[in-house]
Amino acid sequence: MLKKTKRGEIMKELNQGMKKLLNYIKKLMDAGYQDNVISYMISHSTDLDDLNSRFEDELSYIK
Questions:
Q1: Which residue has the higher pLDDT, 3 or 26?
Q2: Residue 17 in contact with residue 54, Cβ under 8 Å?
Q3: How far is it, in rounded angstroms, from Cα 30 to Cα 27?
């Protein structure tokens, strides 16, 4: 079992990643991306870091 401090660090990192993901999704939707496109990107990602990287890349094209 993970020590409480290590578990807390993991949860904090996960929460930050989820907040970043939510922000990216909002930006993509504001840019006119359809729900099905965003869903496709989510379903074809391996993990949270991969997904955030994909969204960062996609956002760089619309700026």
A1: 26
A2: no
A3: 5
